[in-house]
Amino acid sequence: MTGSQRLTKKMIDEARPVPGKPTFLWDKELRGFGCKIEGAGTKSFVLQYRNSEKRKRRLVLGRYGVMTLEQARSEARIKLGDVAAGMDPADEKRTARDAATVGQVCDWYLCEAEAGRILGRKRTPIKASTLTMDRSRIESHVRPLIGQRKVVALRLPDIEAMQHDIAAGKTARPRGEGRGGATQGGKGVAARSVSMLHSIFAHAKRAGLIETNPAVGVRKFPDQKKTRRLSRDELRELGQTMRDVADIEHPVGLAIIRLLALTGLRLNEAQSLERSWVFDDGYIAFGDTKSGPQIRLIGSPALQLLRDQPSIGDEPFIFPSDGGQTHFVAASGVLGRINQKIGWADVTPHTLRHTFGSIAGELGYSELTIAATLGHAAGSVTGRYVHIDEAVRSAVERVSKEIALLLNSAPLNESQPSQL
Known about the structure:
Elements: H1 9-14, E1 23-26, E2 33-37, E3 43-50, E4 56-63, H2 69-84, H3 89-99, H4 102-114, H5 128-146, H6 156-167, H7 187-206, H8 232-244, H9 251-263, H10 267-271, E5 278-279, E6 283-286, E7 294-297, H11 300-308, H12 331-342, H13 349-362, H14 367-373, H15 389-408
Antiparallel strand pairs: 1-2, 2-3, 3-4, 5-6, 6-7
């Protein structure tokens, strides 16, 4: 730039990185204010100045895209005023970074993520469901174990020790009345908590809140995915138990559990269903799921169940809450009480999703078709595998009818042979 040209958004947007080295765009009106373009393409607002000791300093104000040009310009003016008063903003920022605790960084992350200012792996704001899980892990595991520790003092052994403590149940606590029992920690929970903390530190480092990510290089326990699924006999027992408790359990919760079994939907997908998403052709159009927007085929037993749900005025949800302000959220608790009645300790809503896929496998469908019936990203019905639509539709219908038959059947007596 030449003359007294003012730095503009267009200039920053059009600036191209030079591989292997940073470049700068300087504002000619506000001396020392500019934008740094990293070789990888990251753009950040910076302020360059000399402190009272005449030492040249450079301060990162914020990342372009998170901070606007005018916000950065305003912040630069404030910092230059501090410099004129004899202060050194770079030292102050370094002191703040050095003083930040793990708990404070987690609080920053939750606040920024809730406001949509932190982007996930797909360059989109972090989903509310993900944020709910992150908050739970922070409050249940991270904060009690290392929340008061300063990030700058953390080392890999500290984070790996946290992982071992979580796995050993050091942060275990009683659950509510839902699924019963107490949280037991475990290697899966521990590994996911460490992965989350690594991600939080990476976001904080990118924003200039901390200088290094102390979780880089941590060795996590291998992910132990749950493989529990219901056998055919157990599906019969589940159906009978739901009939037995029909007079004392919440009918909406029971309907959602049945829908999970008939479709393989995720719990939050089923509970939050809106009437406008369901079409008579036998599919649900989701605006957003764990894998993004999707169309999911459902079988006729599931479609009939949805049609049978009473409509209350202009209520958009198929499964409204008792207060009518939002959707029902207690299906997991209903399933937990059914578990207790049957004597199961390891059946969750996700078990029903595994069960749908398992029955599809027993019926001879391929992994690709099963993935599509469950809405996995690689098997999106409306994505790259349009040519298998009819195969998926046939599979969904057959599996849904098979599960409906099992749920509606009485459990086998010991004298009756099990039919596979």
